[in-house]
Amino acid sequence: MPPPPDIPLTETEALLIEAYNRILNEPFEDKYEDLWEDEPFDRAVEEFRVLAQEIGVDPNAVIAKCEHVSGPVFSSKHRVVLLDFWASWCDPCVQAGPDLSDLADEFNGRMAVVGINNESIFGETKSPKREYLEAFLDDHRDGFRYTIYLDNAEGDAKENVYKPAGYRGIPCVVLIFDGVVVYVGSPQESFRPTLEQVLRVAETEFVRED
């Protein structure tokens, strides 16, 4: 399968990148993480998250630039989308795979769970290796049953969503409801109440429209 075409930035992506550079990247890029003052950084993260919610994220545009590898092909019909940023060398990511697979099974038809793999998510972006990822997923097929996409050679998903989201680790899930980011962080139990609340709102609105 050929790689996805080179698609230009959307207006939303450009706004997110500008906000990320202004609020988080430029003020802290010349400082090592262990020298950061936590309070100023935390305030900057919160400022960015508020702004990111106002700007929003278009999951269709994000995924269009990635390459489908396994699982159901993403459908743009979903109002609730969970993006999971991960790498195969990350043990917590591998451990989270079965839980996210169960989540995708449990809420099938009510939301989309999409894993976005980037093996160089913390460093300089390197060309993705589809064959390596396919072999890894073949060895872990029970743990990664949900939809998996591969970030492109430019690392567009990493640069335009993961880094601007402000979370410092992986696995990192970004929960999006109608283009609004409602959760960024680890896919642990603390995340589930937010997800269930979002699904209730989405389904209540759907019933009212009918």
UniProtKB/TrEMBL annotation:
<dbReference type="InterPro" id="IPR036249">
    <property type="entry name" value="Thioredoxin-like_sf"/>
</dbReference>
<keyword id="KW-1015">Disulfide bond</keyword>
<protein>
    <recommendedName>
        <fullName>Thioredoxin domain-containing protein</fullName>
    </recommendedName>
</protein>
<keyword id="KW-0201">Cytochrome c-type biogenesis</keyword>
<dbReference type="Pfam" id="PF00085">
    <property type="entry name" value="Thioredoxin"/>
</dbReference>
<dbReference type="GO" id="GO:0017004">
    <property type="term" value="P:cytochrome complex assembly"/>
</dbReference>
<dbReference type="InterPro" id="IPR050553">
    <property type="entry name" value="Thioredoxin_ResA/DsbE_sf"/>
</dbReference>
<feature type="domain" description="Thioredoxin">
    <location>
        <begin position="52"/>
        <end position="207"/>
    </location>
</feature>
<keyword id="KW-0676">Redox-active center</keyword>
<dbReference type="InterPro" id="IPR013766">
    <property type="entry name" value="Thioredoxin_domain"/>
</dbReference>
